[in-house]
Every structure is written in C-alpha cells, then in structure tokens.
Write a structure and sequence with these properties.
The structure holds three protein chains of three kinds.
Chain A (H helix, E strand, L loop, with lengths): L1 H4 L11 H11 L1 H18 L1 H4 L31 H37 L1 H15 L3 H12 L3 H28 L2 H9 L3 H37 L11 H10 L6 H28 L7
Helix pairs in contact in A: 2-12, 3-5, 3-12, 5-6, 5-8, 5-10, 6-8, 7-8, 8-10, 9-10, 10-11, 10-12, 11-12
Chain B lengths: L1 H27 L14 H10 L6 H13 L14 H36 L4 H15 L2 H15 L16 H27 L2 H8 L4 H13 L1 H24 L5 H11 L2 H29 L10
Chain C lengths: L3 E12 L2 E13 L4 E6 L5 H8 L8 E10 L2 E2 L5 H7 L4 E4 L13 H13 L3 H14 L5 H4 L9 H13 L5 E5 L7 H18 L2 E6 L2 H7 L2 E6 L2 E7 H6 L4 H9 L21 E12 L9 E13 L4 E5 L6 H8 L7 E6 L2 E2 L6 H8 L1 E4 L13 H12 L4 H14 L16 H14 L4 E5 L7 H18 L2 E6 L2 H7 L2 E6 L2 E7 H6 L4 H9 L5 H13 L1
Parallel strand pairs in C: 3-8, 3-9, 6-7, 7-8, 13-18, 13-19, 16-17, 17-18
Antiparallel strand pairs in C: 1-2, 1-4, 4-5, 9-10, 11-12, 11-14, 14-15, 19-20
C-alpha cells in the first residue's frame, strides 16, 4: 500500500493562489483601510435604526438649521432634522442600490459573458453585437426618462441601473472566459470527456472569479454614484426618505448659509467611493500581481 | 479605411432607430398626458389639443409619422412652449452645450495626459503618487459635489469667480468647464499611465533603448502612439458621459444649454422636446463613438479596417 | 588589447524575496571579427550579462555589484547616460530573440531604420533612406524600396529578423550582440538567418557575441565558447576545446542531453507484420473558416490538415514533424475531437470516432489522451495535484477517498514525483515537474494511445532529456502507443520508431526513423534535415558551407 508507505507528517501543504492573493491584499494598507470602511458602512447601514439618535423624519421647526453641536453631531437641516441620522439612513439607500443593482448586473453580465465566451463562433458574434448596440445607447437619458415616466420607484431604479452596468461585466467575463478557454488544461479536460457543466464549474469559474470580484467591487461605487446623481436631480429617492444624493442636493440650495449641510453628506459619499475604489484596486493588484503597474 | 467608416456608419442606423422607438414607446405608454396639469381646461380643450398634436392616433402611426418628420429634419413643435419649434430650442442651446463640452474635454485631455505621462515616466516615485492621488480624488468627487464645493470656495468665500452664468460675466466659463472635465481628467490620467507603462515594458522599447535613442524620443515617438490608444478609445464613452454630466453642470450653474432643457422637458412631459433632445444626444454620441473608433484605427496599423478586433 | 574586455562583472537582482546573483564574476574579451558564443539554459544569466554591458537592465531591481567592461579602454559600466547612448546602437548593436515583439508595431520599418543613422551619424533624411534601402537589400529583402514603407506586422518572422539585423548593422558597429536571434524561428529559416549573420559579420568585420541555448547553433557560429550555469561561467575555450575536450561536468551534461548525440534507445517493439493499426486516419481534412464581420462576404479557408492518411500500429511511436503552421498540431487536436474535422475518417481500434457520438465513441475517445506543450497552461492553477489527478481517475472508476489517494500516489510515483507534494499547486512546481503532472493526468485514464504535442519544446535541454526518457519508460511499462508531434527533428529521431513529415497540411514523407533520417526522399525532408544544427563545430561548419553551396 503506497498510502501507508507515505509519511503523512511529511505531506507538504500547498499554498493556493487565493491564499497568496489574500496575503498580498493584507500588505496593501490603502486597500485594508478601504475594506475596514466598507465593513463599517455595512454595519452602520444594517443597524441604522439602533445607532441613529433621532428618527429620520422627526422635524424640529423651532430649531431649524443648526450647526454641529453635542445634541446634533453634524447639525440639523432647515426643518430641524438631525443630519447625522439622515446620513445614516442614506447609507441604507446607497448600499442597497450598490448591492442590488450590482447583483442584477452581475447575474446578467456573468451569464451572458459566459455563454458568449464559452460557445464562441456565431453565437458569440451575435451576442456581442447586441452588447455593442446597447452600449451605444444613451442610457443615462433612458434612466432619467424611466424615472420621469414611471415615477420614482426605487426598485425600478435598481433594475434600471443594473440593466446598464451588466454590459461591461458581460464584456469582461467574455474575454476572461475566452482566454481561459484557450488554456491547455481546458483542452485536457474536454478530451478526457469531463461533463461541460463540470468544466465550467470546476475549471472556468474559479479561474475567472478574480476579475469578476475585482470588477464587482469597482462597479459598486459607480452604481452608488449614479443613484446619487439621479437623486441630486430629484429623480431618485422621494422625500422624506433621504439618500446621499438628495442630501447633497438640499445642501447645495442652502450652502451659502449652512455649508455643513453640503459638506458632511459630500464627505460621506466621497469617503465611501474612495474606500471602494481603493479596495477594488487593491484586490486587482492582489489577484493579478502583473497588473500592479496600472 | 473607407469601408471601415462605411460599415461603422451603417451600424449606427439600427442604434438610432432603436433609440427613437424606445423613447417613443416609453413616453407614449406613460400614465398621464402632457396637458394633464392644465387642471382648469375643460375636457373639450384637452381633446382639441390631443387632436391637434395627433395624440389620439394609434401609436404605430404616430411613430411612423414622427420618423417621417425626423427624416425631413423636423422635430415638431414644442408642447410646452407654444409657437416655438423643438428645432429652434435645440439649436439655441446646442452651441452652449458643445462649447462647455469642448472646454471640459480640452481640460481633461491636457491635465489627464500630462499627469499620466508624468506618472508613467517614473513609476513608484512622488511624480507617480502625487498625480495619481489627485486622480483618485477626481474620480471619487462627483461633479455635483465638486461643482458646489468650488462655487462655495471660489465664488462665495473668496468671491473670485461668478456663481453662475455662461458668457455673461468674466470667467464664468471656468468653473463649469473644470467641474465637468475633472472626473474625465482623472480617468484619462489613469488610462494614460496604464497604457504607457504597458507599452514601456514591451520588447520594442528595449530595442529603442539599445539603439541609443534619447528618452524623450523613446517616449514621444516610440511609446506614445500605443500608450494613448486606451485614451482614444475612451473618448467616445467619455463624450457620452460628458453629455449626461452637462445635465447636472448646467443645472448647478444655470447654463441655458440642451442639458438643462432636457431635464426641464422631462419634468414638464414635453413629449416632442424629450424626443428631440434624446435623438439628438444619441446621434451625437454615435458620431463621437465613430470618430474615436476611426482615430484609434488610424493610430494602430494592426487594426484591420474590416473588423473590430 | 582587445576590443572589449569584461573583468569580474557581477550582477544581482534585489527583490522582495531577497537578493539573487544573476551573474557572478564574469570575465571575457572579444576582438573585432571574432565570435564569442555564450551558451546556457534559462536562468543561467547569459542575457543579463549582455544587457548589463549596455545598461539595459532595469535598475533597480538589478544592480551591478562589481567589475569593469572596457570598450577600447573606456568603462561602459561607468559611462554617463549620454556617453552610453552614443555607444548603444552606434558602436555596439543588439539583435533580440523575438522579431515579432522587438520591432515597434506602430512605426514603419523606414522610421525605425533611419532614426539610428540620423541620430548617430547625422545623416540627412534622404541619405539615411538610401542607406537603409541598401542595407535591406544586403540582408536579402526583395523589393526594398517598397518594403521599407511596411509595418512590421506585414512581414513574416524571418523577414522581420532580417530587418532587425539590417537595423543593427546600419551604423557599422564594432560589436554586435545577438540574443537568441533564431530561437523563435523555424529550423529552415534559422539556417538562413545564421548564414546571413555569419556573412555580414565577415563583411563588416564586427565582433559578435552570440547568445543561445542551442549547442548546435553555437557550434556552427562561434570561435570561442563560454558555458554559463546559474550565473557562473563554468567553462570557456575555443569551440574545439569545449566540444571535443569537454572539462566541466555541466558542459558534458548539456552535450549528452542533446538527443542526436545520444543513440536512440533500442526500440522495444518489433512490429507484427499483420497487426491491425490502432489508429487510422483516412483522408482527414480539417479546414478553418476565417469568419469576417458581417457585411464582408469573403471567407478565407485555411486548409490546416489537407487530406492526410496515417496508420499507427499498437506499440509503436510515430513521430510527426513539421514547421510552424504545417498542421501537425491540428491533426492531434482533430483526433481527440478538440476541433471539428471537415472530411475523412478517424478509426480507433477499428471503430469510427470522428462522428459525434454515443457512449461507445466516448469510451473509445478516453483511450486516447494528450500531453500538451505548455506546462504553464496545461494545469489548472487553482487545483492541487491531487485534485487534478483525482478528477481524471474518477472519470474512469469510482473510488472512495482512501483508494483514490493511493491511486494518485501510485501515478505520481510512476512519473517520478514525490508523493508528499500531493497537496501542492501547479505554480509551486518547476516546468519539468509540471510536465510530469500532465503526463500523470494522461495516464490516469489508462489510455492506449498517447498524443504528445510538443511536450518538451518549452523545456530546457537537460529537462527535455529527462522528460523524453520518462515518456519512453512509461510507454514500455504500460505498452502504450504514441503519436509524438514536434518541430524538433532530433527529438523525434530520438523517440520515434517511424516518422511522418508534414508540410502545409500534407504528409510529404513517411518512413522508419533511421531510413528516413539517413536516406530522405522528399526534397522538403532533405531541406529540413540539412537545416538541423549539429553540436559538433567541424561538422557544423562544413555542413553550413555545403548547404550554402547547394
């Protein structure tokens, strides 16, 4: 028996590429900072009603707009609502948009890209031509139209944003699948007669996970930005609900008298975008060390 | 080359058709007509208005009529501003938006390419980290945050520049152009840096060094063409982004371009106006995509003019 | 005093993993008109040594720790940047390995040729153009006035290397450094380029430093030879001394690893005269259609395999040789159904397996396994050795975990791998070890026929020999039949019982190995054979003279 002849103590534990990537990520201080902020944000968004010192629609017209104080850490808006609370609740909207719209993009994009890249040939050509055509459409305009025509429905918004962002995801996944498809280990398992579903699940998916994770991380800030953009134009979240974009929009109206109403929401949005971008860049460098140069 | 341009041009037709149809169907299927807000108007008047604008025809016929009109270059009358045609309104706003876009892209290209070159020339030094930090800030500071902040600092606190306007006061074009261009400057600098570093690591750059060429010649003659390709292909999408960015900028700075017109039309349900501007935007985007593709093809001798890859 | 004198040159690389000494205390000298051959395997430091002379190494991570490199008494390593630029491309020129990537794809040949003349010699635009055209003519490019306006991608590999050579000699340098200039080329093109370099070296009286991993190529071109191993110069001497009175064990090992000098193993299997072929290709055609974007109706048909019939008998190894683009790999891929065939029949064990299939054809197909060329892409980087091999085994038989481990261990021992590495990932192995894993994976299905597609061409010559011997051992042990596909005639001669020669999608000649090599019939076979460099200076030089006459 060879197993018994083999000294189990001596088995050398291999280091997978994921472990390598994780250790590289942990050495990247900016990325770790980004990761911490993102985790913090998620916690804050989930426990917003526990943390928040006030209710988000609780008005105090007597107080009106007040600068930051010990009662209201970030001040109050013109209706006397606590800004800190409103930013907290805004994080829910932003993160929800980020997660849901990105999931929509991820689902459509990965499926589309996988099919197109794996099958290749005419199917691929047709599918990519569709993506090309859709790419050329002025989507921001359509989303605005959609919001105007069908009312400001938040789930419609998620879906609409996701429906735009999947295009790039599909292109990335397709090119990744194609490059993996050309690797000789895929030829090897095909010629061994492994089932197609197993080839995709065990050999293709794990090898394109890296770029998918990276691009997903980089899509989230884009989606958050798009929602804020629409809310800023008054096309996103409806009052009294608040989102960062609508807070910034309100802040702009009164920035001469009450600059904190602009500065704090703007700061929150920017730090979030920063963190997600740092994390995304860090992940890319960690997962594909050769790309560290760009 | 001619064939390449022709193929691209023909590809644009289905895109435009799609844009028109989607917009048309979307708007006509909206609940509530354009004259709903005229609460005091008796139903007979609404009926009359609907007839006058052929709103009671079947939707396919309306679409057909509309397409016919567009082919004749007529976007119809505005619903909201009686007596003014969509053509007229668009052509009043267009030069302003184009000018804004032009300054913004000029700003983005100048700053972006120089910052990217600087960073790529000495990677992992302060010359790299400094511009790249700024670029990160540019990407993470959206225009609707940056614009008001700049106004707050330069117009309200220091009172150096006017708060809003376009061509009415000295220097009132500066802040809008910078605000609109900054995110693109940031992207372009990252693309330039990435593209240049990629090219500079190629074997043929080693050949150029082994030939004794000077660093400026290596960068400007041997590396730049390839290094800027990603920037050129980005220009098409960037232009589309600039146009939608102009909605915000023109709203913040109260500039009477077509971006603001569009937002107003959307809120007012001014059907013909929405249609007109959307088609116009789509056409502009298609044209600029085409131009950026053609420039990229000219820069890269390996692109066969027949195909994309 | 010599033209170039290098003394005690040491170069190291400082990386996060620590310091590695790439070149240790290298000393050599070069005269005008003389050729120094530097030979070594990958990682021996032979290229680093030459790049460091011209300051072409990125510093950091590279650093020059000690030594001098005197060109006419002037130390290249101490030069300031400007002085060094004046030497590069002017007094010392370089030719690089891959003509595909070392010419700038965005610039015309004309720009790339004339710029050195304008820079170093102050030629006018017109004079530079005239000289550039003349030099293209000199390196044998037809119609140089027209060709000079082409972009590199419009030329073939051999032409590009000719352009590179023309470019390096334009400024009449004193020294020419050629870094593996023929490695990326087919053997017949290699022979032409070698002859060209040699002729031009004589005409221009330059000192030539010729870097190669190929002892055969070095034998033909070098006066003096320097053998490098892991940064050390282990042996230096005249070509005759190195090849005929070899001193250092490493040099001996290199020379022994070359298949052509080692006598072929006595082949184990004598063919039964009336045996049925195990694999039979009948009129196989595999065409590729180059689909253009819609609107262009024209379709280019590439006839990769064009009417090929071969028979492979049980127990034999058939070598299939051909140059790049000959269609040899496509045959292999057609047999295991990785590409769809256009016409013809593939019979395995008297059963047709070319049609899309039922369970029976699938079972037949599993008896044919392939070993691929690139050990870096033929293993899934995210699976351990165990996972890779267990996956293959489980396609053949269902086993519980314990039985599986023992089966995997047995396979690993078969291919000479330590069983304690069972949980390691591909990137933790060397190229040779990975190829062993790939062979183990092929064996896991207990195949009857192995298709080996260039299995050793990505490996260093000493590793190559080990893998070839492993293949021979396994074939014998499991009574396997093999189709061995390679561009390398020496390797094919070493391992095959019979050989088929392929050119442009067709088999031009088939025969028993020794018959075919000693008495080739087809002109193409003859030209291929005459182009193989022989690691024997006297024979090789004589051969070059012979072939350049014919």
């Amino acid at each position: 028996m060879s197993t018994t002849s083999m000294d189990l103590e001596k088995i050398q534990q291999g280091r997978s590429l994921w472990q390598d990537a994780l250790s590289r990520l942990m050495q990247n201080h900016l990325a770790v900072f980004g990761l911490c902020v993102v985790i913090l944000l998620i916690l804050v968004a989930i426990f917003a009603d526990v943390i928040a010192p006030y209710s988000y629609q609780e008005q105090n017209l007597v107080l009106g707009a007040s600068p930051p104080s010990s009662d209201h850490w970030l001040g109050t808006d013109t209706l006397g609502r606590d800004l800190f609370t409103r930013i907290l609740y805004g994080s829910r909207v932003s993160l929800m948009v980020g997660v849901l719209a990105t999931s929509v993009a991820l689902t459509i994009g990965v499926t589309w890209g996988m099919i197109s890249g794996y099958l290749g040939g005419r199917v691929d050509m047709l599918m990519m031509r569709i993506v090309d055509i859709l790419y050329a459409l002025p989507f921001t305009i359509f989303i605005i139209l959609l919001m105007v025509v069908f009312g400001r429905n938040i789930y419609l918004l998620f879906f609409a944003i996701g429906a735009v962002e999947w295009l790039t995801m599909a292109r990335i996944v397709r090119s990744q699948v194609m490059s993996i498809r050309n690797q000789e280990y895929i030829d090897a398992v095909i010629s061994m007669g492994l089932l197609r579903i197993k080839i995709i699940a065990r050999h293709i998916l794990p090898n394109i996970m890296g770029p998918i994770i990276v691009y997903t991380t980089l899509t989230i800030p884009g989606v958050i930005l798009l929602e804020s953009f629409l809310s800023f134009l008054g096309l996103g979240i409806q009052p009294p609900m608040s989102s960062w974009g609508s807070l910034i929009s309100n802040g702009v109206e009164t920035m001469e008298e009450y600059p904190w109403l602009l500065i704090y929401p703007a700061l929150t949005l920017s730090i979030t975008l920063f963190s997600l971008n740092f994390l995304g860049d860090g992940l890319r460098d960690a997962i594909d060390p050769r790309s560290a140069k760009d | 080359m001619f064939r390449f341009v022709l193929v691209r041009f023909l590809q644009a037709i289905p895109v435009l058709f799609l844009v028109i149809s989607i917009t048309f169907v979307m708007i006509r299927s909206a609940p509530g007509g354009p004259f709903d807000s005229e609460k005091n108007a008796p139903p007979e008047i609404i009926q009359q208005l609907n007839e006058r604008y052929h709103l009671d025809d079947p939707i396919i016929k309306q679409l057909g009529d509309y397409l016919g009109n567009i082919l004749r270059g007529d976007f119809g009358p505005s619903f909201r501003y009686p007596g003014r045609s969509v053509n007229e309104i668009i052509f009043n706003g267009l030069p302003i938006t184009l000018e804004l876009g032009f300054y913004a892209i000029l700003f983005a290209l100048t700053i972006g390419i120089s910052a990217g070159l600087l960073a790529a020339y000495k990677p992992k030094s302060w010359q790299d980290y400094l511009p790249m930090s700024f670029s990160m800030i540019g990407i993470c500071l959206p225009s609707f945050v940056l614009g008001p902040l700049l106004v707050l600092i330069f117009s309200i606190w220091f009172e150096w520049l006017p708060v809003s306007g376009w061509g009415q006061f000295n220097g009132d074009k500066l802040l809008p152009s910078i605000t609109l261009g900054s995110a693109y400057a940031a992207y372009i600098s990252r693309l330039t840096r990435g593209g240049m570093l990629e090219v500079l690591s190629q074997d043929y750059i080693r050949t150029a060094r082994a030939k004794g060429l000077s660093e400026p010649r290596i960068i400007l003659v041997h590396a730049l063409k390839g290094g800027l390709l990603p920037v050129v292909t980005f220009l098409g999408p960037a232009f589309a982004g600039l146009l939608s960015g102009s909605f915000i900028i023109e709203t913040i700075f109260q500039i009477p371009g077509i971006g603001r017109l569009y937002i107003q039309a959307a809120f007012n349900r001014d059907y013909t106006m929405i249609m007109g501007t959307t088609i116009f935007f789509a056409a502009l985007i298609v044209v600029f995509n085409l131009i950026s593709d053609i420039i990229a093809a000219m820069l890269n001798p390996r692109i066969s003019y027949q195909g994309k890859n | 005093m010599s033209l170039l004198n290098v003394e005690n040159l040491s170069v190291s690389f400082n990386t996060r993993e620590g310091k590695t000494e790439a070149v240790k205390n290298a000393s050599f000298s070069l005269q005008r008109g003389e050729t120094l051959g530097i030979v070594g395997e990958s990682g021996s430091g032979k290229s680093v040594l030459c790049y460091s002379l011209l300051g072409l190494l990125p510093m950091p991570p590279a650093s020059i720790d000690s030594g001098k490199a005197l060109l006419d008494g002037e130390d290249l390593l101490m030069c300031n940047k400007k002085a060094l630029r004046h030497i590069r491309g002017n007094r010392i020129s370089m030719i690089f390995q891959d003509p595909m990537t070392s010419l700038n794809p965005y610039l015309t040949i004309r720009t790339q040729l004339t710029e050195t003349l304008r820079l170093h010699k102050g030629f006018s635009k017109k004079a530079a153009l005239m000289k550039a055209i003349a030099s293209l003519e000199e390196v044998g490019i037809a119609d140089p006035e027209k060709r000079i306006n082409s972009y590199p991608h419009e030329l073939s590999g051999g032409m590009r290397q000719r352009v590179m050579i023309a470019m390096s000699l334009l400024t009449e340098p004193e020294i020419l450094i050629a870094d593996e200039p023929t490695t990326a080329l087919d053997v017949t093109i290699q022979a032409q380029i070698l002859r060209l370099i040699k002729r031009l070296q004589n005409d221009h009286n330059v000192g030539l430093i010729f870097i190669s991993h190929d002892l055969g190529v070095i034998a033909g071109i070098a006066d003096d030879v320097m053998v490098m191993e892991k940064g050390d110069i282990v042996e230096t001497g005249t070509a005759e001394n190195i090849y005929y009175q070899t001193q250092h064990p490493y040099t001996k090992k290199l020379l022994c690893s070359i298949p052509i000098t080692g006598k072929p193993l006595s082949h184990q299997y004598s063919l039964e005269t009336n045996a049925q072929p195990l694999l039979k290709l009948e009129g196989l055609k595999t065409y590729f259609h180059d689909n253009h974007v819609f609107m262009t109706k024209k379709q280019d048909v590439i006839k990769a395999v064009d009417d090929v019939s071969i028979e492979i008998y049980p127990g034999e190894t058939l070598g299939l040789v051909g140059e790049s683009g000959s269609g040899k790999s496509t045959i292999g891929r057609s047999i295991i159904n990785l590409v769809n065939i256009t016409q013809g029949k593939i019979m395995f064990n008297d059963k047709e397996i070319s049609t899309h299939g039922n369970e029976e054809t699938n079972i037949s197909r599993r008896q044919i396994q392939m070993v691929f060329q690139d050990p870096y892409s033929s293993l899934n980087p995210r699976m351990t050795v165990f996972d890779t091999l267990a996956e293959a085994i489980s396609l053949r038989v269902k086993l519980n975990r314990e039985e599986m481990i023992s089966e995997v261990v047995k396979l690993m021992e078969d291919v000479g791998l330590n069983a304690d590495q069972i949980r390691k990932y591909p990137h933790e192995f060397s190229g040779g070890q990975r190829q062993r894993i790939a062979i183990a994976r092929a064996l896991a299905l207990r195949p009857r026929l192995i298709i080996a597609d260039e299995p050793v061409s990505a490996l260093d010559v000493t590793i190559q020999a080990q893998i070839l011997d492993l293949l021979l051992k396994i074939i014998k042990k499991y009574h396997l039949t093999m189709l061995f596909i390679s561009h390398d005639l020496s390797v094919v001669r070493y391992i095959s019982d019979r050989v088929a020669v392929m050119q442009k999608g067709k088999i031009v000649e088939t025969g028993d190995t020794e018959d075919l090599f000693s008495n080739p019939q087809h002109p193409y076979t003859r030209s291929l054979l005459s182009a193989i460099p022989i690691p024997d200076p006297r024979k090789e030089r004589q051969r070059q003279i012979d072939t350049s006459i014919t």
